[in-house]
Amino acid sequence: MKKIMIFDFDGTLGDSELLITNTMLETIEKMGLPQRSRRECAATIGLPLAECFSSIIPMTDEKAEECADVYSEIFHRNNIPGAVPPFPNVIETLRTLHEKGTILTLASSRHHHSLAAFVDEMQLNDCISYMLGANDVTFPKPNGEPVTKTLERFSIAPADALVIGDTKFDILMGRNAGVETCGVTYGNGTKEELIAAGADCLIDGIQELLHLPHP
Questions:
Q1: So what EC number does this one have (predicted)?
Q2: d(CA 45, CA 35)
Q3: Was domain 17-78 assigned CATH 1.10.150.240?
Q4: Which of 31, 120, 133, 202 has the fewest Cβ atoms within 10 Å of its own Cβ atom?
Q5: CB-based burial label for 135 (10 Å; 0-12, 13-18, 19+)
Q6: Distance between CA 42 and CA 138 in Å, rounded?
Q7: Residue 67 and residue 34: Cα distance in Å, rounded?
Q8: Model-level pTM?
């Protein structure tokens, strides 16, 4: 078992795809932008918020930031309690890992306050030792900074860490930081995408983390 596990949130711990894509589609409509499909929106999950829009609709950086602001307003309205349930076995698995002494942290593309609110709603504050949102780093995923910053915080070597996520952006973040990666197949990314990004292993359920071989 690794000393530290660095988790993505959306699509890995929380089932937020419907909330995110609904909010993106509403934002696109409100901004009068060319329509995009739910699948196209889902494929951007894991990127910094402004990039979610600019990656699927040609626009200036200023327009992308405006989209991000409108998205945040709509998201605040749509994000009612229970809108983002944990995936099966997430709570139990994280608690078991915590009890075994594994340091559990989060590295997310959502803003810190939003991430903290979900951790609070899922009553995981006692299990999560550290969390980084997109606004906590200079270079968010797929850059390796969220991982290296986390490892520096705990003085842990890359060899003793594992990044767990559901998209290529998570896998690339881990690889860019020189850390082993585990892709989850139940989230927003496809198994093929995770393999192509270079995931060291794949799991179909988060509880499988309890049975990964020792390094």
A1: 3.1.3.18
A2: 17
A3: yes
A4: 120
A5: middle
A6: 24
A7: 13
A8: 0.89
Alpha helix (H) residue ranges in the chain: 17-30, 38-42, 49-54, 61-78, 90-99, 112-121, 145-154, 168-176, 191-197
- pLDDT tens-digit series, residues 1-50: 899 999 999 999 999 999 999 999 999 999 999 999 999 999 999 899 99
Pair of tokens at residue 139: 């270079």
Q: What is the Cα–Cα distance from 175 to 178, expressed in whole angstroms? A: 5
Instruction: Tell me which residue of 200, 213, 207, 209 sits closest to 174, measured CA to CA.
Output: 200
Residue type present at position 158: P
* Tokens found for residue 10: 């959306």
In this predicted model, what pLDDT tens digit does every residue of 36-89 receive, in sequence order?
Answer: 999 999 999 989 999 999 999 999 999 999 999 999 999 999 999 899 999 999
Residues in a beta bridge with 128? 104
Domains of the chain by residue range: 4-15+85-210, 17-78
The rounded distance, in Å, linking the Cα atoms of 162 and 81 is 30
User: b/e per residue, 82-106, with b = 16+ CB within 10 A?
Assistant: ebbebbeebbebbeebbeeebbbbb
Residue 86 backbone dihedrals phi, psi, to 5 degrees:
-70, 150
